[in-house]
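Q: What does the assembled structure look like for these inputs?
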Amino acid sequence: MLEISGLTKRYGDGEPVLSNLDLNVKGQNIVSIIGSSGAGKSTLLRCINRLVEPSSGSIKLNSLEITSLSGKALREARRKTGMVFQGFNLVDRLTVMENVQAGRLGYISTWQALSRRYPQADIQRAYELMERVGIAHYANQRADQLSGGERQRVGVVRALMQEPDILLCDEPTASLDPRTSEQIMVLLRTLAEELALPVIINIHNVAEAKEYTDRIVGMRFGKIIFDDVPTSLDDKAMNDIYSGTPASDRLSTETTQGAVHHA
Amino acid sequence: MPSEMRHWKKPPTIENPIVRWGIYSAIVIYLAVTIPTLPINWPRVMEGIGRASQIFNGAFPPSFERSELLIDGFVESLRIAVLATVFGVGLSVPLAFLAARNLSPMPVYILGRGIIILARSFHPVIVAILFVKAVGFGPLAGVLTLIVYSIGFVAKMLAERIEEIDFGQVEAMRATGASRILIIFYAVFPQIIPRQVGLSIYQLDSNLRASAVVGIVGAGGIGSTLANAFGRYDYDFALAITMVIVGVILISEGISGQIRKRYA
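A:
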């Protein structure tokens, strides 16, 4: 269970990117976060695993206060928090297996990691997960030889190798074509159910958010201004979240074009 | 029927005509004033031409009679170059990490850059003179000199490569809970290794060339052999040495170019 309260993040003296934000995610629940670029979605996710330092507030994952951790304790908290990235962030020159095993770097010894002598159980689990998402035959290929959708599958498997308590996905489909993007959403949805894993997905594609997630959180200017089931996301709510663009207009463009052009 | 013809001319680089003509006339005036004051002593130039022809007459045909001296000198140069490359590149890698702005905190970065700037600020010949004074004539001075020279180049270029890495890969490794050392080995090294290999090969090549130069001031290797030959007016032997230096450098350039092309 994730409990965020009073979370504020500001860079330097500027306007806060996140201001006094509260959010709870209970049990196995797929939550999507929508909002225009700069609303603070990415910063919010990165505060949860402390890739970004929060300025103030509290973040508790299964009752463990994340914001005060440092050193080894922080690394142990990070390894229980899986993350999937928009740009996949695979190590291009390493093999798919090495990329997948990178998810275990928080668990294994430095020597095991450097010599690539991964524990047998980890190799077993890697093959199972890779077979599950259809990339097992690429184990010895270099990561940069795979297509976008395949690369994102590697990214998902890497995150799952961490045996996470929660999965954070930062626009996981924004660099993919519409069809691959849907495949990844289906995959995230079914894996979350199989592993009983709470998932938070930042997403620009509102149609996908409505179809594949249980709950939609709308952000604007670092605050949560909408938080409800997808069916409640009406034109007025869309307008509030993405003011400036007529909601119906935006929804139709999102559906037809996918979100490939969003940065 | 075309309408009125339209012309286009490239706009001048310096737009303001006063500044433009000011700069042109300043250059002309400078040359007109300074050229007559150049201390060229024509009789001495004439003498020099005569002496040069004497040297070249003495140099032909090149003499390979003392080829064991030549070979010894070259083997020593090669040893100097290999040792200096191994140690220089070895020290450059950690130094490059210190001097990479995206991985190091400000004080460490300044220290790293400071060391690199220091290593780069003197020409190898000057460094060689210092080391020859410090540790005496011979190859040790040459090795130390070329280590400094290698650090100045390899650490700088490598630090710049580290600053260009895709930081997303680092972020992904941090997100797995990996320690700093594993982040470096999993996210940074794979990205910089092609450049690292290329730089090391280039530096070996470059050290071989430089070892001939620093030898002239007493730092061992073929350069010392060459300086001695000149000192004893053995111009034919000196020419033989020079020819071999050029040949070896051509070959090593060719080989290292091929390796770098294949790998990177």
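Residues 152 and 181 of chain B are 25 Å apart (CA to CA).
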